[in-house]
Amino acid sequence: MQSFLDACSANNQVCFFDKGAYIVSDTIRVPSNIRIVGELYSIIMGTGSNFQDENNPIPIWQVGNPGDSGTVEISDLMWETRGPTPGAIVVEWNVRAATQGSVGIWDAHFRIGATAGTNLQQDVCIKSPDTPVTDGSAHVASCTAAFLLLHVTPQANGYFENVWGWVSDHELDLGTRDQVDIYNGRGFLIEGDGPNWLYGTSAEHNTLYNYQWANSRNTFAGVIQTETAYYQGNPDALIPFTPQDKWNDPTFDDCAQDNCARTWGARFVNSSDIYIYGSGLYNFFDNYNTPICLGTETCQQHMVDISGNCSDIYLWAFNTKGSEFMVSYEGNDLLNWNVNRAGFCATAVLFELAGSEE
Fold first, then answer.
1. Whole-prediction pTM value?
2. Which of 58, 68, 284, 293 sits in a 20 to 30 Å window from 35, CA-based?
């Protein structure tokens, strides 16, 4: 695969991946000037001993090197993992656009677990709501899929359209297609000065957060969607991944309620000039139990976190489900669902953090 990508880039040819699953056991370095197209969502599947260290994660696909600028176009691919790979960054994005819009991903997705060949299916990872799930248990060890889906590094930027980061909540290929527990640390992490554009993207069922902007500026996101991990409550968001300061992970240290340590739908840390137009951030479960927590909209305490030195955060057409409060701002809960309820969701036409005041 490495030789193939290098040759395509050197000869200014389109890299075409025939339909199939391609097993990757070490980091593939994707050149910073390349066009890649899959066929019926060709699968890039990371696995093996190189992706096991949560404290030293490495990418399956490293797109460019830090500081690179160029032209990268990727479409019609699927990224997956096989077996537990808790130290896998599925895609690390290092390239900055040489010209406006020259680097991006179109119609390519992250699908983690619950399909043939992943070894993360219902025969191993069947949900277990009636059994307490503890860190280090065999269930967790066998079903911990990856460290992080997509990392846009501080020097990089990009355009991302119809990119879905789905950590499987149910089996797709085996038998009865039952619900499964798949543990994936983080969804989309965006750092740096941008500008970044996200159109029609989604991140679902990650452990610590689905979207996070950290030390980041200048993002436009149109229509984003998230779901909290269905199993949470058994365990909460602090299992199995240990929050790490160097990744700006949430620690949930200020949690006082049992429903507090849950997947953040979106999180903003020391970030500014983020414009999100249309968002649906949902939680439907507390340990797979829908009727109780949805009846009172208490599946989790809050859905969006804003902390640190943030300013000019704009959430237009902002919707949450199953969350007592829509926003936590510096530890203060804002926008109670009962006050802001409009039909199915709690809704705000606009949540604005202009300067340092909401």
1. 0.97
2. 58
Is 50 exposed, middle or buried (CB count within 10 Å of its CB: 0-12, 13-18, 19+)?
middle
Q: What does the pLDDT read at residue 356? A: 52
What is the average pLDDT value for the chain, to the nearest integer? Answer: 96
Query: How far apart (Å, rounded) are the C-alpha atoms in residues 216 and 301?
Result: 25
Q: Shortest CA distance to 201 belongs to which of 225, 233, 232? A: 225
**CATH 3.40.50.720 is held by the domain 2-353:** no
Give the containing element (helix H, strand E) for 343: none
pLDDT at residue 357 tops 70 = no
Flag whether pLDDT at 307 surpasses 90.
yes
Token pair in block for residue 21: 């699953």
Mean pLDDT of all residues in 132-159: 96
Give the tens place of pLDDT for each residue, 40-54.
999 999 999 999 999
Asked if residue 255 lies in contact with residue 232, where contact means CB atoms within 8 angstroms, the answer is: no
Task: Report the alpha-carbon distance of residue 8 to residue 31 in Å, rounded.
Answer: 9
What confidence tens digit (pLDDT) does each residue in 58-108 have?
999 999 999 999 999 999 999 999 999 999 999 999 999 999 999 999 999
Closest CA to 321 of 285, 289, 353, 287: 285
Question: What residues have CB less than 8 Å from 102, skipping those under 6 apart?
Answer: 70, 71, 72
SS3 label, residue 147: strand
Give CA–CA dist 242/94, Å, rounded.
25
Exposure on the CB side of residue 124, measured as CA atoms within 13 A:
22
| CB distance 324 to 333 below 8 Å | yes
Task: Give the residue among 88, 304, 80, 65 at the shortest CA–CA distance from 186.
Answer: 88
Cα separation of 120 and 135, whole Å? 18
Q: Over 60: is that where the pLDDT of 19 sits?
A: yes
Q: Which of these, 280, 284, 254, lies nearest to 266 by C-alpha position?
A: 280
Provide the 3-class DSSP secondary structure of residue 93. Answer: strand
Quick one: CA dihedral 37, 38, 41, 46, positive or negative? Answer: negative
- The CA-based dihedral angle spanning residues 34, 38, 41, 44, taken in that order and rounded to the nearest 10 degrees: -60
